[in-house]
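User: Structure please.
Assistant: Input sequence and predicted structure:
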Amino acid sequence: MKEGLIQNRVAESELLTIDLTTFLPTDHPVLFDLSSYLFKGLILKEKDYREALAQTDWSAYSQNIVLVHCSADVIIPVWAYMLAAVYLKPVASEIFFDNAETWKEKRLLKNINEINAEDYKDKRVVIKGCGEEKIPDSAYFTITGKLIPVVKSILYGEPCSTVPVYKKK
């Protein structure tokens, strides 16, 4: 190296950075919360619930991903969720029994599991560790398990400051 030249060893290291935020779902699901159908916020009366569902304007859910859940800490009978599915299935693009946070994590993990690990064969990979959006720990676990059979090494963090996680022997 010539004296006085600044060498960018990070750029020359052939590290491949994976930013897990790129695997986050881009869809924005609509919530269907059974808590608004509770009598006095405590129980679900079957007759009242059936009538309320029959009178609901389902167009708000049309062609949307819909997450069915109950935000109240009460016991909801299974048939109540089943009835919601009966009304939502014909109008929604997809329906899930989930809240927004767990749905997002499941979709993230699904997207990670769909990558072709062979694209990373014999590569030195950095799994980006910092960012604006919180990434669940399960995503780091999943991408590591997916890549171990094929990569040369896995590091965590930023290319300029990494923690070694795995190195092929």
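The chain has five helices and seven strands.
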